[in-house]
Each structure stands twice: as structure tokens, then as C-alpha cells.
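Structure ticket #2291
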Amino acid sequence: MNSTLTTSAVRERLHTLVVIDVRTPGEYAGGHLPGAHNIPLDHLEHALPALREAAARSDLLVVCASGTRSQHAGTTLSRSGIPAASLEGGTAAWASAGEELHRPATTSAPKWAMDRQVRLTAGSVVLLGLLLGQVLHPAFQLLSAGIAAGLVYSALSNSCTMATLLGKLPYNRTDRADLDNTLAALRSMN
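Resolution: structure written out below.
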């Protein structure tokens, strides 16, 4: 990753940047920077040729929810010789600064953001562990302890294994046609 840009710096340069949002399709649908292209982090390797072409024409900005995944994406791009910047604080910082988020027009039910999916899953497993521990056997409370330990590790490491696993579920995956359309759009940009 070559640099990190603040929200105000991105606001001034947004019209000159190619914005790549590396979040899941559900997170992207929940609101993204204007003009952002959705290439989930787990598809980044496949998109490298198109990203190399786009970077030859304009500066790349990689965006995620908080900046962690965009830093990982930046490392991948850097190893491939593709310069890119990251938005400091990610989409959350952009929205907190009062900047506009775009949402794709869709007829389907809106997808939940990944952090919301993680909270629901973690809370459900904790409650299930406590309930089963009271009703069946105290050992089931280890489920709750495991989730608690995972949340502490997630905070300390600034990573989230549960989000990675949830990202592999069908409703969080990019439709191959959507990814192909995104890559074609990147290649055809002037």
C-alpha cells in the first residue's frame, strides 16, 4: 500500500480516482462511495489484470468498512506492482464525515452489513450456549466462552474469522456475472 488518504483528501480527488470496494456484496449494497466498483477481497487475485490496467490510467483507491481489508488488499496489489491508496477509516469514516453513500437500485431485500451479521451470529451462539448449558449440560457454556474468546482475539488482531466464514455464505458471495461486469467496466474506463 503506497498511502492512506483522509476523507477530505478523497472528497477533493474522488472524480479522479478509481475506487475499488473490497467488502462483500451485501456490505457494498448497504452503501458505498460514489462510483465504487465492488471486487470482494477474496476475488482480488482474479481481478489483478483489470486492476493493473485501471491503475495505468488513474490512481486506485481501495476501500472497505474500516480500513483493515483495504490494507490487506493494498498488500496484494503492491506485491503485484499495482500502486493503490486506502481510505483512512474506510466507508465508516466516509459516512461519519457526512459524505454521500450510494446504494444500488434493487428489487430484492437489502443485505445486512457484515458487522451486523457477525453480531447476530455471535449473540445467537452465546445465547444458545448459555441456554443449552442450563437445560442440558454445563459444558455447552463453552460455546459462549469460545465466542467471547474469538471476539477478544478479533479486537486485538483487528481481524474477524467469523466475518471471513460468513463471507463465504451464498448470499454474501459475488455473482460471477456481477464480477465479470465490474471487471469489464474497469477495462473500458478512459
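Closing remark: The mean pLDDT is 87.
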